[in-house]
Automatic annotation (TrEMBL):
GO terms for biological process: peptidoglycan biosynthetic process; proteolysis. In the C-terminal section; belongs to the transpeptidase family. In the N-terminal section; belongs to the glycosyltransferase 51 family. Keywords: Carboxypeptidase, Glycosyltransferase, Hydrolase, Membrane, Multifunctional enzyme, Protease, Transferase, Transmembrane, Transmembrane helix. InterPro entries: Beta-lactam/transpept-like, Glyco_trans_51, Glycosyltr_51/Transpeptidase, Lysozyme-like_dom_sf, PBP_1c, PBP_C, PBP_transglycosylase, PCN-bd_Tpept. This is peptidoglycan glycosyltransferase. PANTHER family: BINDING PROTEIN TRANSPEPTIDASE, PUTATIVE-RELATED, PENICILLIN-BINDING PROTEIN 1C. The keyword Membrane applies.
Length: 793
């Protein structure tokens, strides 16, 4: 029986050998190249700008598997794995025949215990094709596939595939994912003890899962044995002996970071076709944590005031990189809808768009920073804007109007814009989901539209970049982006939206906005670095904003509720600004606020400006200050408000001529009557020049000062009157006069029709036809316009 059994066994072995050999030859010659480099599913890893891990996503099959090229896998890992798994890897053809025969005999003939004989190549075949190698047919297929792989791939490619497919415990596959999870570092940074440990796991990933307490002691002892073998080949590494005795310290997948969650979520949703891989983002984790820390502390302190949520963003305007993004104060707080990204949500901007109205007005030559504007009640058709404090300050400089956020001057400037309006600017800046222009009207100046925080900081970055609009950058330039919608495709959206001069002057205006909260900080800020900033409060106190430029950054903070519910505490300067400056102080403490916006080559001139009038000073202006304007564009003239007049020493009245013995000289302010009225309404009393002596003749007074300016009727305008109301309706005549005017006399076609006191309209009952309307003040100064009156039935 024994010889017969030996013959039978010999026949089986020979048959199996020749069958396998024949199949191997056929497979080697005729099968196509298998793709072992890219499995069906990979994870995606996002890093900050300094290569700190922000998030590692599961692959589509719920495994952590991160593709790592062979040049990013340290030699220590490669050598340790080959030492433990396949010492003859570079010599064999994918199969170790001696080991295979020995394993076959021990496992299937002798049946004493199962013995493995899988080479690295065979393991790649099993892992890639998902074979069951515990049965003989599966083992045969594995052998054939190994030969096939060896034919088509180099040893380094096979080794690379192994290190990206090998199981490392739990749902972790590949050395790249294992290194990030277990040791919180990329594979290239693994040291020798870590490399040896990882090389042990794939042989039995369930029992040798380093997270299990039961496996750690086994791994420690097995690693010591492997290190002994290692020293036989690399004796210079004996200095690692002490480290090999230390307890194994690893982390679990539950310890993976989950940083900048709103930013990463948005990145993935906005660019769904990003292929799995590793991406270096624009986020600076240190700055991200800074925003998070201050936001949480601030909301905790102000919770009693009704503040429960905030969003913030920090953008480097020089690189346009979003370096920190905080969508909400707590991503995991469902009570505040914490997973909503407030940075990307549409909200009313309140007054934060006003700087761009002033920039456009500067560009159009309507104002310069010290131009006087009127903060007074004004009706624009059916729209009558009011100020937040329900008060009016009268004539103030454009800079004061902007930093004090006066509504009427901003609306009036927007109304006067003819070339490029605020709506046109928003369209050019790619503000999404805008309604038609007519939908907003003039309310656009006060936050009638909706913008995202990101859109807002990009507008402010445009000011910092001297009118050049650019898209944000969310991935570093050295990130490998395989995507038809490249997130770094910034150069497609670079536009000059405002002139460099207008942008710079607007920044200087914003820098006059004083800091809030701490006086000591305000002093420090003005001495060391400027902050170009603005607040905003939306209608019904739904949104509190603070946004501005400091150092190389644009910073924005928002306080409110994602539900849209308002609260009396949601006021920009009171709710958002303190957090804004708290973050700035922290940035400064780390030395991150450096530099100033001081461009060269701008068409801007610095001159002395009369502080009272905002114009170039005449010889009688009592106080001047330095001011900037754009030559050839800014509306600037020599002021004639301060005038020297002669006062009779006896009566105190105004004399027509200077006589040294009977008169004295005095300087008075001669304001137009509309501004005098506004000063009075604002509680500002202006000293009025005395009336002339009775002995002064019209010929003496009519040539001095300014003639009236007729504001109604308008010159060369046709007025239409209903025939049924011809006798009842009156057409108002009004004019702006010099300060010393008292009475206005109105004439129609040289016929006197009536007189009124200054600042009082005269109502004329119109007739049909064309008329010349003339006004003469009590000092003989006059003005005239032409008009037409038509009837309709």
């Amino acid at each position: 029986m024994l010889p017969s059994l030996n013959k039978k066994l010999s026949f089986i072995i020979k048959t199996a050998f020749f069958t396998t050999a024949l199949l191997a030859v056929l497979l080697y010659l005729f099968t196509p190249k298998p793709d072992i480099t890219q499995p069906n599913a990979y994870s995606t890893a996002f890093y900050d700008s300094s290569d700190k891990l922000l998030r590692l996503n599961l692959a589509a099959d719920d495994r952590y598997r991160l593709w790592t090229p062979i040049d990013k896998i340290p030699l220590s890992v490669q050598q340790a794995t080959l030492l433990y798994e396949d010492q003859d890897f570079y010599e064999h053809i994918g199969i170790d025949f001696i080991a295979l025969i020995n394993a076959f005999y021990t496992s299937y003939i002798k049946r004493s215990h199962r013995v493995g004989a899988s080479t690295i190549t065979m393991q790649v075949a099993r892992l890639h094709f998902g074979m069951n190698t515990h049965v003989i047919f599966g083992k045969v297929e594995q052998i054939l596939r190994a030969l096939q792989i060896e034919r088509h791939y180099s040893k380094n490619q096979i080794l690379e595939a192994y290190f990206n497919l090998a199981p490392y415990g739990s749902n972790i596959e590949g050395v790249g994912a294992a290194s990030l999870i277990y040791f919180k570092k990329p594979a290239i940074d693994l040291n020798l003890p870590e490399s040896l440990l990882l090389s042990l796991i794939p042989q039995n990933p369930t029992k040798r899962n380093p997270i299990k307490k039961s496996a750690k002691l086994v791994l420690l002892e097995t690693r010591k044995k492997l290190f002994t073998r290692w020293l036989e080949k690399y004796p210079d590494d004996k200095h690692w002996l002490a480290a090999m005795q230390l307890p194994i310290k690893v982390y679990a997948s539950s310890d993976l970071p989950f940083e900048a969650p709103h930013f990463i979520d948005n990145l993935q949703s906005e660019y769904p076709h990003l292929k799995p891989g590793e991406y270096k983002t624009s986020i600076d984790l240190n700055l991200q944590n800074l925003l998070q820390r201050h936001a949480r502390n601030y909301i905790n302190r102000r919770h009693r005031d009704g503040l429960s949520n905030t969003s913030a963003i920090l953008l480097n305007y020089k690189t346009m990189e979003v370096v920190a993004e905080l969508g909400s104060v707590d991503f995991f707080n469902n009570d505040i809808s914490g997973q909503v990204n407030g940075v990307r949500a549409k909200r009313s901007p309140g007054s934060t768009l006003k700087p761009f109205i002033y920039a456009l007005a500067i560009d159009e030559g309507l104002i310069h920073p010290l131009t006087l504007v009127k903060d007074a009640p004004k009706r624009f058709g059916g729209y009558t804007p009011e100020n937040y404090d329900q008060q009016f300050l009268g004539p103030i400089s454009a800079t004061e109007s902007l930093v004090l956020s006066r509504n009427v001057p901003a609306v009036n400037l927007m109304y006067r814009l003819q070339k490029v309006g605020l709506y046109d600017l928003l369209v050019a800046a790619d503000i999404k989901k805008l309604q038609p222009k007519e939908f907003y009207g003039l309310a656009l100046a006060l936050g009638g539209s909706e913008v995202t925080m990101l859109e807002l900081v990009k507008l402010y970055a445009m000011l910092a970049n001297l009118g050049v609009y650019k898209d944000e950058v969310i991935l570093k330039k050295d990130a490998t982006v395989i995507n038809e919608n490249n997130p770094n495709n910034q150069n497609n959206h670079i536009k000059q939206l405002i002139s460099p001069e207008a942008a710079y002057l607007t920044l200087q205006m914003l820098s006059e906005n004083s800091a809030v909260d701490e006086i000591s900080f305000q002093k420090e800020r003005r001495q060391s670095y400027p902050v170009y900033w603005k607040t905003g409060t939306s209608f019904a106190f739904r949104d509190a904003w603070s946004v501005g430029i400091v150092g190389p950054y644009v910073l924005a903070t928002w306080v409110g509720n994602f539900s849209g519910e308002g609260h009396p505490s949601f006021i920009g300067r009171q709710a958002a600004a303190p957090l804004f400056f708290e973050i700035i102080r922290s940035l400064d403490s780390y030395g991150l606020i450096k530099g100033n916006i001081k461009p060269g080559g701008l068409n801007i001139t610095e001159v002395d400006i009369c502080s009272t009038t905002g114009d170039l000073p005449n010889v009688h202006c009592p106080k001047t200050e330095k001011g900037l304007f754009i030559p050839g564009k800014s509306p600037i003239k020599v002021s004639d408000v301060h005038r020297e007049i002669y006062i009779d020493k006896v009566s105190g009245l105004r004399a027509c001529q200077y006589v040294e013995s009977t008169t004295t000289k005095a300087v008075y302010e001669f304001w137009p009557s509309d501004l005098v009225r506004l000063f009075k309404q604002a509680g500002i009393v202006k000293r009025q020049p005395p009336p002339y002596l009775d002995s002064c003749l019209i010929n003496d007074t009519s040539t001095r000062g300014s003639a009236p300016s007729i504001t109604s009727p308008s010159n060369l305008i046709s007025y239409t009157i209903r025939a049924s109301k011809l006798k009842q309706e009156g057409l108002p005549f009004s004019a702006i006069t010099d300060t010393d005017s008292r009475i206005l006399y109105w004439f129609v076609d040289n016929s006197f029709v009536g007189k009124v006191e200054r600042d009082t309209p005269f109502f004329w009952h119109p007739q049909v036809g064309e008329f010349d309307v003339r006004v003469v003040d009590n000092l003989g100064r006059s003005a005239s316009v032409s008009m037409r009156v038509k009837l309709v039935q």
